[in-house]
Design brief:
Blueprint lengths: L27 E4 L6 E10 L4 E8 L2 E2 L4 E2 L3 E3 L8
Antiparallel strand pairs: 1-2, 1-6, 2-3, 3-4, 3-5
Length: 83
């Protein structure tokens, strides 16, 4: 069975092994420099020139246009109240 190619897959290096992203979609995060800016990981992609993942976050359902690197975000630890 042949692998189905995406529209721009020809731009990707064939031998590149990208690492696992630091955050998955839906992970609650905040900016390290501005902790009051927090939201959920909405989208991420591998940036070949920078050799790192870039992340987009959504705040109250609206995606911010800014791209974040993994170094600029921290995961928010959510605790469930004891029942």
């Amino acid at each position: 069975m042949t692998e189905k190619m995406g529209l721009f897959d020809f731009l990707k290096p064939k031998s590149d092994k990208t690492p696992k992203p630091k955050f998955e979609i839906g992970t609650p995060v905040s900016e390290i420099e501005r902790p009051d800016v927090s939201g959920l990981i909405d989208y991420y992609f591998w940036h070949y020139k920078d050799k790192e993942y870039k992340f987009h976050i959504s705040i109250n359902g609206k995606r911010k246009s800014r791209r974040y690197s993994g170094k600029e975000l921290q995961e928010l630890i959510t605790t469930n109240p004891a029942t």
